[in-house]
Amino acid sequence: MSLVDGITYMHEHTTIDLSRIKNIDDTNLNCFEETVKEFKELYHKGVRNIVDVTNLDMKRNPLYVQKVAEASGINIVQATGFYTEKFLPDIVTDWTVAELGKLMIKEIQDGIADTEIKAEIIGEIGSSKDGWTENEKKVFDASVIAHKETGIPITTHTTLGTNGHEQVQFFKENNVDLASVVIGHVDLSGNLEYILKMLDQGVYVEFDTIGKENYQPDALRVSMLKEIEQRGLADQVFLSMDITRKSNMKYKNGIGYSYLLDTFVPMMKEAGISNDTVEKMLIHNPQRFFRQGVK
Hints:
This protein is an alpha/beta fold. Helix content is about 40%, strand content about 15%. Helix 9 links the parallel strand 10 and strand 11. The N and C termini lie close together (about 10 Å).
């Protein structure tokens, strides 16, 4: 199920279109040939899996993603679920929690939309800055239904790293095994104690905006990861970049998907983070996360 042996990027987008809300074409990531080229580079560097967390209504395109996977050789895991308030389709308002859960279960068991491509992760389900909207809470409730029915793991979005503790508490109250949940974008908080509190409860966390130094400097990400390693909590961390814009891509002179391996990993090693820890975050932790959800 899900992952093959090798490096895994745990939170990415092969194609995504947020331009109708952001009102900028840069947020319509639809450059097929350029994406395939970068994914082939990743393959040569040992990447074998990319978890694509594009869902309704980020203008997902499962057949496009499948074609990128076939052309690049990389196994791309696809998702079911809904994002944050501004991007939610009308059905989140109109349908019941049970109906939304049923839709996710259908996409996991039968196929996404009208395809036979099965979702293998629920996410990225999101909360807004510092809290939930009513509709976002419905999505979280529906995700619990789908998770308990299928065993598929859950990946979340926290806006600028906020509301992470509340998300963890929600899953605990709903008797979800925290080893099947990853809280996303925690590196954007820039707050080590905030992250450690989540790790102490047994949830996974993602440093998944690596390279986005306009939000947080990578040196801070490295220093937080170093402390997490020293506290023996590196088993619960994933790494990724969350590329969503054409300007992030190499053909637009952006840092590109390989920045994580070419630049950030050397920074980690230079700071004294061990090879074993790097391999845990990139290879072994994702494998274990997906194995735990097998039914």
